[in-house]
Fold each of these.
Amino acid sequence: MSWLKMIRFGMLHVAVAISLVPITGVLNRIMIHELGIMASIVAALIILPHLFSPIQVFIGQFSDRHPLWGYRRTPYIALGILLCVVGAALTPFAAFAMDANFWPGLIFALLVFGIWGVGFNTAVVSYLSLASDISPAQYRSRTIAVMWFMMITAVISTAIGTGRALEPYSPERLIEVFAICAGVALTIATLGLIGLEPRNAVPLSHEERYSATASVRTVVRDPLARRFFVYLMFMLSAILGQDVLLEPYGAQAFAMDVRSTTQLTATWGSATLLALLLHGIVLSRWLSNKHGAMVGGIIAATGLTLIALSGILHLEPIFVPAVALLGFGTGIATATNLALMLDMTTPQQVGLFIGAWGVADAAARGLGNLLAGIIRDLAALVVGPTGAYATVFLIEAIILCTALVMLRAIDVSAFRSQRRDLGQLVAAMGDA
């Protein structure tokens, strides 16, 4: 696997990220703060890709069996990215339609955000499957690392670029910027995809694909695995549940303009990337994965607490550093928890546990964002808008601390000593 091919896989990941950032880093703020749409409704629309994530297994299995024009993955990647960027480009129209006439606008928004969500899942599972198909086993971790690094860099660059392009903000400019992002994403994806998959190629390895249901049911049969899965749900929902609310919070608490709140995504992403690099180069030598997960969680919880206190106490100078602290803790927690999960598996179980990780990540993002929006709307009736946002961040900090208490009780060595044979587990699951 050449570096050029790894970079081309990364370009597909970058294209999807470019379609995502304007929605979660700009449109959420516009819809909640400028248009006054309920945060719970905005959250429900933005989490549609996570609600649709179970279709990844069906799409992956379908593309396994139904190549098109001699290509097993390329047509599905192209279709997914096309739906993703077209849906993303139409989301501002849906937001303004809801503002003009709510119920018809909401129906249109569900359609548009649904197209984006289906495209997102179709593209992601297809290009990850292609990476697995044509990457020798010894190069897969390197390929994923390159894709992840390029994706985080794209998130930062897109946030900075869209923030500058939206100065000054106007609805017309917002629509134009989203169209530009869609065009850039489509161009990058096209350059990365053409010629990437050999025609009529036989995959280097074809691993069994496990459904989300199979992964979860297998994991919950083991008490130690079940405890770790619940811990992941708590940890991820606390860290990732702020996605929808961070930018509108900056606008509400500190009267930050659209450009400034968009830069929060760049700040968070830069800190996350720095943490990933620092962990990979330095911290992993000093800290075990479990201790690293504890450190990352504590840093992230501190960031969430400071974000809440900055608004309550009107201390704007600590807000952006607190966002960076949250991003740094997120980076360490992500790297260490994924490594910790792999520590707790045998080679034969990796597919199942990666599937369980995907379920935990999608469910935590979706549930965390939705509950954050609902709590914000309800708390605003009692403590006002700024206090409502602060309440959500404090609750997330408490959930994260609860997760860390759960982590202390997880014994990796005990899990490995009690692991069961994968074949027996799957057979038992099938007989249930």
Amino acid sequence: MATPSLAAPASSRDAAHAFLPLLLILFFCSGCSALIYEIVWFQLLQFAIGSSAVSIAVLLGTFMGGMCLGSLAFGRLVSRRRHPLRTYAVLELCIGLLGILISAGMPLFDRFYASLAHAAGAGLTMRALVCVICLLPPTFLMGATLPAISRWIKNTPRGAAWLGFFYGGNTVGAVAGSLLAGFYLLRHFDMFTATYVAAALNLFVAIAGILLSFAAPYDAPPDPAAGVSDAAAIATPPFEESAIYLAIAISGASALGGEVIWTRLLALLFGGTIYTFSIILAVFLVGLGAGSSVGAVIARSTPSPRKALAWCQILCILAIAWSAWATTNGLPNWPANPYLDTGLRARFELDLARCAWAIAPPAIFWGASFPLALAAVIAARPRRDPARSVGRVYAANTLGAIAGSVFFALFSIAHWGSTASQHILIALAAAAGIIALLPGLLPVAGRPRSEAPRGLLGTTIALVCAILLGSSTLITLHVSQADQLPWQLVAWGRRFRAWTIDLPNEDINNGDTRLLYMGEGLNSSVAVTTSGADVRNFHVAGKIEASTDPQDMRLQLMLGHYPALFHPDADKKKKVLIVGCGAGVTAGTFILHPDFEKIVLCEIEPLVPKVVAQYFSEQNNSVVTRIDSGPHAGEFVDPRVTLINDDARHYILTTGEKYDVITSDPIHPWVKGAATLYSREYFELVKQHLNPGGLVTQWVPLYESNMAVVKSEIKTFFDAFPNGTIWLNDQNGAGYDVILLGSVEPLKIDARDLQSRMNLLISGVLGDVKLGTPADILKTYGGRARDLTDWTLGGEINTDRSLRLQYLAGEALNDDQATEIQNQILRHRQYPDDLLKAPADIEKSLREAWGDKGP
């Protein structure tokens, strides 16, 4: 006997299908706005909770968790009698309103978080609380949009296919949002403009949804309680449905895990700019969207979407293996040297092509899995409320994605490395395929006997294929080591080919460059090498961050000794905060100054002070060396040292401590996230944590940069420190880098006092880098804020609202204008009579060196 249907009458549903292509456009716009919000909210919240791996995990988990809850709760909270299009329109309108409200109120949330952190400590709970308050309401509504519209679709293979198309359209819209925000809105405007664009898209979708609702029929079905019970509507056993949920959850875990791993590897290869991350995200989402469309087509015609889901996961084994090889072997040896090309368009096109070649295949299979899982669940329970079916599949996939991103980002890579983590991805894909196949091996009441042998045979074959393919792929990768991460990639990044292929082999293989250490940490991958005349290099993010080369040693010593020697109060006991450990040389300079009673070192990557800095203990005065044994085992050799493993900006925001010196040597500003340590708000925050007479130094590179970038950095710093000065670290007259020195009060330097302070240092500490006398130090003076007012006139101030610097710097990483920039700065340098007090001979030598004839 036929069971009565709970679906709407066929006539109204068939008429509704005529509007589905228009609804696909609306879902595209919805996905575009969602990605813009995600990018903006993540950047804004990182100013408060920090940008460490833990903070990013909390952000991502909250964002996706809200979507998961929204998808699950919608079917229970909203009656089926409401028109789906009007419900969808209301959801979009509320998302837009919340988007504007959250972006506008983010400074209040920052202060709220800072006050909580001061009172209760800046722990995981406090970070999660702020993320929940800001992100849970809008993401809850975002997660409800697909279940809402599913009520307008038939519970048929064709209806499931359309839901797959909607999911794909939403994903392709997310691609557009990623590129629009990353390459245009945030590059040319700011975060609030981007928010308004996203809200305008929400408003457009809401209005269009309302208008469509008047033209599109909808006959509300009765609630399930009024008809046949959910139990009576079961077409297949519950264990089959559970297997589908588990398989799509594992698929989500492997998808987000793969994105985490390959984003980290590709950022090394392409250069970790904001544009690189936008390209990787866009390619990954394109793969998901394309795969979802293919899966939707398959779901419409396949007699067993569950088996199709299983085969999708089985084939994903090969796709993951391909990406593992491509990211560590194929792309690094790509027959082109992208470093030689300085054209932005050509560079982005090349990166886009290489990224798609490497990671699109598994993304396509992961994208195809969602509509197939959806079709399988709908086939299992065809008379259930479609919003509940869609919500459960979406929630399972999202929960898996949260688990995968957290596991791989916070544990797997740091403990086992990217190679082993990719092996885990392959095992997960095999497990998902096997789980999806298992229900076909179990007896099902009511299955025709004639179909059972054929179905059992096909399932057995597929199961054997999954086991053999997964195990053989893992063995092949392990034996061939085709997915091993080359240490040169961690060391040289985008210059990998230039250092390993384009240069003569003897320069690399005959002892000129040797690896001492490589590690994949919680936040970044690091390496230590030795090259040339026993020069040691510390590499992070695919570039040299510090070294024992005389030029780099000079910079690191200047960042520490200059503020220590220039501080106006020589007798006062002082405290210093060092932002970024690097090789530890800057931190180690303060070991030699007895007036510093507390040395606080803040480093985001735990591997750097724990392992890397130990290779430079001779140069850094063993500043982070710990006692091996005895009652004080584990403590630092110098009791004045305190180590903070945290994002420096987050630490400064949440600490109540003030310092006499804050010296900052962050990574190059073209690296994503570094621009937050060059913003006006950051410098104002630093200024608030200075004691009276306190000094702050900031590193500014002139290499891998251009005029617009350096003007922005210097103008932003001088905006916060009008009494700021520039000090040059040139390379035999050629430009290299500079340090900016700021103070609240006007700086006064007495050459005689400087000499007496230098006499207290170990002989040769500064002489080895040609800074052995007060005259040597003062000759590095490059000017001050009021001298450079005209030169910085066209520079853009880098603010938290825009973070313009990360876009400018990301475009300039192939530029080499260091000497030209330095020469332009020096054209404005004047002898600072009110800043320097020097004997006549020193003053004369300085004026002669600078071409200043004097009064």
